[in-house]
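Lecture notes, unit on protein representations.

Consider one protein chain, 717 amino acids long.
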Amino acid sequence: MNQQDEIKKLASLLDDPLKVPVEKLPISKDVSQKVASSIKGSKVDNKVYSYKDLAERVKMMPEIPKITSGFKEIDDLVEGGWEPGELVILSAAEKNGKTLLSQSMSVNQASAKVPVLWFTFEMGWYSITKRFMKMDWEYSTMKDPSDLPIYYPIDNRAFSLEWLRSQIIYSIKAFGIKIVYIDHLHYLFPMSEGRKGSVSFLVGEIIKEIKEMGDELQVTICLICHMTKTDPGIMPSKDNIRDCLPKGQLVYSNGKRIPIEKVKKGMIVVSKGSRCYLQEDKVKNVWKSGKKKIYKLITKTGCEIKCSDGQKFLAARFYGGVDSFKGQGFDFGKRDRLISENGWTKLKDLKIGQKIAIVKKYPEIKKETITPEMALILGWVIGDGHITPKGHTEISVETEKECLLLKTLADKSFGLDCIFKKCKGKNAYRFYMTIGRKEGKYKIKRNEWVEWMRELKFHPIGKDKFIPDIIFRQSNRVVGAFLSGLFQADGSVGNNGNRNYKSPLISYCTISNELASGVHHLLKRLGIMSIKRKDKMIASGFRSSVKDINKITIAGTDLIRFNELVGFFCDKNEKCERLMNGWVPKNKDRKSDLYFDKVKSIEFVGEEETFDIEVEGHHRSLPNHTYCVNDILTHNSSFIGQFADHVLILWRETQKKGKDDDILDSPNIYTSRSILSFELNRRTGETMRIGLGMINGQFYPWDEYDILSRGVSSEGQ
């Protein structure tokens, strides 16, 4: 025996599924002490090897045997068949023939002398045996069951993942099993646990364990699972296993809010870390997901998101109203389960009044490309100013003291000589961002402010006002200064009007939806929670009467944080200090990056083109992928697509039911034709669709089906 054969011999012992410690393995008489000593020892190899060394090692290794899928068309697509350790997902809507197709593949594999192991939880051993008998050519012709190497237990009542593993190990030793079928996924987890928490996370953990089991035992596992209901007339895809977001939803990335359709692979996003804190992660993939039904969710504080009904949110268990104790989510009272996987709940399972996680504070950005003074002036101009397309700017200011402050800042930051004048008949001033003088006889001094506005191409008016992108990319210090100027211009300070408990209240009003959304978001950048809602605006100053406005209010402990990081100037600052003097907030400021906000409304908004992104999600406590959209924490990655090596989607053709067709109450009936779509192929990346036809409960490729349906036996059948 040469050294290579010796290594293979000992390696077969090391790969034993029973996990006998390496040191206790008996050394075969055919294996030399030299080879044994070179392999025995720690299983963890901490050495770093060169590509050449590893390539030489691969050259010496035997070719990995492939396992036929049962259909030549699939085998050709995956370079000869499945490989040991691969996880194959077969998915379809209910009653589309998933089990029948799997049995057809099993019979074809068994006919090729590939031992197959079956676990079915939808039917008993008698029913599945009767189905296999229909597919058995020898039985159907001679009434004598053939010796097909198909195996399955007759009693599944002791089921657990450990029991499943032990059955596979036994069958490998006893029958040489190469492929395992599990029918189907949702029978593998306890429903009591599903009612407590998020079914998707339980399913994810199970799929991950099954994938690891296949890798360890070196068998191919075919896992059958349902998909969400689809239009009977439309061919589904792997995107029907996922949930997604429509165009325009803003994904947070490095301070910027990027529409989901513009998100690129490799971008940094914010995802959930440990407990109530956020972390940074990378976008792993992004793609279009087709047209889907879209719903809009609005929270009590004014956060909004549009998504499909399967999008998941981190939710607290709901105990109120008629549906008391029925909502999914985690329990606030149990610290060990706080923000655990039990909280992830699909949109369609959320209740009005249930709390979901929104962002309270984003990770801080250190970068500064503009000064706080420049940001403050820009905020003031957006609040009460007017910018022409050429960049010339005027600002409405309430007091002379504010004019002097604004002049000092503008002159210093932009080298101006600003002027201001009192308005006739009004208790207000008009402030001009001007150079105010000529330099030399003919040369006019550059107006740096005007040039900056032209560079930004920034001259919004009224309802079209917004916050320029440059502000979102700044540090907290600059963001605080910008908000300070904005609130100084259009903000106000007063009390909540509650006779029993008077509390200071800071508010900001604007007729621009986009501006209100931007302010609401920037406050979260500083860890300041606010409420955004619709209100009525009363005419004052230079404003005419407008019916609807957006109002942002800040109260409680967030007032203290606002004063520290944003604040007012002049008379407004004095009023704020006077109102807060001696005041003690009722609520406590909890150190957390998340805030649990009540769901205010969920409504259907129509069908829209959707997009999906996949995030790496590197934190050990969170095996899935999360990210922040419109300041709401969400995740929509499918564990099925994440852990599977191959995904097959089966779709059966339907036709309108005729007058004489008595098939339940369905308006459609299935035909004998189906399409098997190869949606995910991690080996070669190639995908295709295969036409299938059904005869006597067994699937055949269309060419064979056409021959058999005419009563002619095809070759090999």
